Amino acid sequence: MLEARSIHHRFRPDVPLLRDVSLHVAPGEVVGLEGASGSGKTTLARLLAGHLVPDRGRVTIDGTALPQAGFRPVQYVPQTPVLAMNPRWRIGRVLRESHQPDSAARSALGVDPAWDRRFPHELSGGQLQRVALLRSLAPGTRYLVADEITSALDPVAQALIWTALLRLSRERGIGILAISHEPALLDRVALRRITLR
Ligand SMILES: Nc1ncnc2c1ncn2[C@@H]1O[C@H](COP(=O)(O)OP(=O)(O)OP(=O)(O)O)[C@@H](O)[C@H]1O
Predict the structure, then answer these.
(1) Is ipTM beyond 0.95?
(2) Where is the signal peptide (predicted)?
(3) Which of 7, 95, 105, 144 is most open to solvent, judged by the fewest CB atoms within 10 Å of its CB?
(4) What whole-number distance in Å separates Cα of residue 57 and Cα of residue 68?
(5) Helices (H), the chain
(6) Which residue lies with its CA nearest to atom 17 of ligand 1?
(7) Which of 8, 18, 21, 41 for mutating ligand 1's site (highest number of atoms within 8 Å of CB)?
(8) pLDDT tens, position by position, 75-120
(9) Domain positions in the chain
(10) How much is the pLDDT for 157?
């Protein structure tokens, strides 16, 4: 179980952002996270992935703190994956930097092996997001924090990605925290929702 307990965080001493936020995501469960712009969704996502350390409170998996170094079992997937890829690397190298993806995950996400020879700017937004998800689904990945991953995509690309992701989450027991501004999307993918205020 991924758990955040009584998280407090602020970037400026006089402006508290997250105040006593707690949540949990079970293996294979999809939980929605919503909240107004600026309410701290991305900050919470980065705390859960271990990119940031909370001022107070704890993030744990099965009661143990996140590892300080090495592979991150909670993977953060941003809205704009191209910003998290080396523009000089071909897709094959971008993927291998994390792990050698298995063919089942590759075909579930529809990542064509021919793309491995292309550079990130030579793929569409939806194709790149599928590559980013494949990269994040390493063997050690237990949870995904999906931060507006399909907000910039058309409905067909959005449906394709979520259908594949929900299947992989079920098959591999990967818990997902799905951040979105779209209530209709959260209704479809998540059984439970948390609202940041
Ligand atoms: N690294 C940082 N340094 C200083 N302030 C930050 C930093 N990251 C975020 N903030 C501030 O924290 C607040 C919350 O930002 P955050 O991105 O977590 O919100 P959000 O709910 O994800 O917003 P949106 O829905 O617009 O993406 C904002 O006021 C933002 O300016």
Answers:
(1) yes
(2) none
(3) 105
(4) 16
(5) 41-49, 91-98, 103-109, 125-136, 155-172, 183-189
(6) 42
(7) 41
(8) 999 988 888 899 999 999 999 988 889 888 999 899 999 999 999 9
(9) 2-87+142-196
(10) 86
The domain 2-87+142-196: what is its CATH number?
A: 3.40.50.300
**Which residue minimizes the CA distance to atom 24 of ligand 1?**
37
Helices 91-98, 125-136: crossing angle, 10 deg rounding:
20
Using CA positions, which residue lies closest to atom 9 of ligand 1? 43
Whether the pLDDT of residue 44 is over 90: the answer is yes
Nearest CA to 143 out of 90, 193, 73 is that of 73
Integer Cα distance of 9 and 20 in angstroms: 9
Predicted TM-score of the model (pTM):
0.94
Given a contact cutoff of 8 angstroms between Cβ atoms, the answer to whether 32 and 149 are in contact is no
Beta bridge partners of 77: 146
Give, using CA atoms, the residue closest to atom 2 of ligand 1. Answer: 11
Q: Whose CA is nearest to atom 18 of ligand 1?
A: 40
Which of 7, 8, 10, 11 for a ligand 1 pocket mutation test, highest count of atoms within 8 Å of Cβ?
11
The answer to whether the beta carbons of residues 33 and 194 sit under 8 Å apart is: yes
Tokens of 16: 């508290």
Residues whose beta carbon lies within 6 Å of some atom of ligand 1: 11, 17, 35, 37-43
Strand order in the sheet with 56-61: 15-25, 2-12, 56-61, 64-65
